[in-house]
Amino acid sequence: MSTDAPAEPKSEIGEINKYNFRTETTGVFKAKKGINREIVNQISDIKGEPDWMREFRLRSLEIFESKPMPKWGGAIDIDFQDIYYYLKPTDHQGKTWDDVPQEIKDTFDKLGIPEAEKKFLAGVKAQFESEVVYGSLEEDLAKKGVIFTDTDTAVREHPELLREYFGKIIPPEDNKFAALNSAVWSGGSFIYIPKGVSIDFPLQAYFRINAESMGQFERTLILVDEGANVHYVEGCTAPMYSTESLHSAVVEVVVKRNARCRYTTIQNWANNIYNLVTKRAYAYGDATMEWVDGNLGSKLTMKYPAVHMKEPGARGEILSIAFSSAGQHQDAGAKLVHEAPNTTGQIISKSISKNGGRSSYRGLVAVHPGAHNSKNNVVCDALILDPESRSDTYPYIEISEQDVQIGHEASVSRIGEEQMFYLLSRGLSEQEASTMIVNGFIEPLVKELPMEYAIEMNRLIQLQMEGSVG
Amino acid sequence: MTHVLKIEDLHVSVGDKPILRGVNLTINHGETHALMGPNGSGKSTLGLAIMGHPGYEVTSGSITLDGKDVLEMGPDERARAGIFMAFQRPMAIPGVKMADFLRHATTNVRRPDRKEGEELIPMREFRKELREKMEHLRMDSEFARRYVNDGFSGGEMKRAEILQLAMLQPKFAVLDETDSGLDADAVRLASESIADIGHQKMGLLIITHHDKLLEHNPPEFTHVMLGGRLVETGGKELAVELHQHGYDRIRKAYPDAEALNQKLLAEDAEEALA
User: Fold this and answer.
1) Entry pTM
2) Which residue of A has its CA nearest to B123?
3) Which of A28, B154, B209, B268, CA to CA, is 20 to 30 A from A234?
4) pLDDT at residue A27 tops 80
């Protein structure tokens, strides 16, 4: 289906697409470049936050400053003082799209968000730079007690619920970028699904970076109460600039007993974005947590969604797709931690590298003492399209329990001359043939997505493949 | 106008190893040619050279289709010009459904000038045609949803190749052992299908070791390949003779070609061991 899409205009880098446009906005407030106590206090002042949050931010800033950069993953060359940490695009959040400033509304129109909302979403949050500028939730879900709001609003309106979990699944001490997010976070989603409530359609958040040298630090917390069920989807894009921008989110998820949460990311950042994100879920008794993580674009992505299976019967599943092209490094993967007996984990990772791109799978499987009868299976497949490209696998396994079943399979393949010849001999062009092989490679994951996202994913792959055969 | 595929003094090497040493062959549209010969004689090489496999280098000679230089074309252009090969061992393309693959292939072959990204044959129209062709070949409709050659049995692969022949309706087709690895019923079904789809409707070059396929598709010409050359050409009776008596007469009659054939076989064996 993907190959039906009409050809898009191409840029000098060969993968320009409908996401690469800049919006002229005035904005209502832009903090000075750089990070220090003054900036952090300023963000807290503007948001009118309670003291506990201000203290959390300042403490996190100290942790950020004291922590070294990660010594593994990709090369990070960021001047932290050359980034804008807070940009408020509008002074209020729209409840209808007409409430949103015209130029920002136009931005999301171009990205197809209002249209998707009408067709198949139960609720939407749209974040532009540092703030959520639009939010909606179906009325009957709100009546059932579902909360879907931005995290800033949640600090004001649901402080007790939020404080019980905020920074508890991913504390600022976790890593340098989690500390940075904790210090300057703004926006993101706060979701609470009450006991037994099941949402049939996805809730979606869309994150747009527009300004140059911008840092976006959304903070998301999802609480799925016992027996509840939710599918949350996030999309991310930004226009291309010559200087780097930084996206560093923290996402915490709690899935209580018998509940289910699926978190799908379709990220298509511009190639100047450092995407350094920490995502972690706690799954309790017989709960299921699934991360579906599609990573396209960005200069460097370091992201390893995690599931900690805290009680017996918990399940964690991670499906990861990474696509890296010229000048890109996707260091993506997954973490599964079995902390209780009878827990089940699965990681399926598919990576594609072309035009000198580099994809790495980095994964951890840990089984704690006492987590007997746990099962874990990891499959990671890499497809390399040309000799200039690269793929690496870094699997870490820490097993402290005898009675477990662990499986690990890895494969690396190149598009074979024979496969290519076969498709060409049937009249397909080289471009069509390689796109078809790549789409086939990720098909086992794409078919897990709801139809609309599967189409989007195939379309993104198509865009990435354009101009790949010279 | 009758279409003509013309091969003149064709020399083909794989790596630096010469395999074909001057093949001459003219196939008119509607004719059926049987290509026979012992293992290692170069039959598949001729097919792959006609289709344009990048590993098979034409060192001299020519291939033309209606006077147009085929050697100038890439494999995709050859397909669009009306050349087809049913492969002995078709490649698996995991994750790509037969129907999607065939819709692209069929569109491109029928609309050779189609630019990338332009519309494909409408889904409804394509599905209807595919369903009819599959029913005709007694293929389960589930087949269209399976991934191309992925986990197919030998018989399924061959039938998938015949389905492609039926959908693409080429002017000329090389069938490389499309009847091998099949049980008796499947050979009969394949032979009947090819007769129905291709016999006298295209130019056929049939490479086979069995007699069933040629019984259903009686060749006007039978060529015998040995040591990379066509050493003898006859009618249908030559195919019958070779099926009944094997290649002993040919090997004795053409000792130089036989020596080359043995040499190539020995080198292949060495490479397989290395």
Assistant:
1) 0.82
2) A1
3) A28
4) no
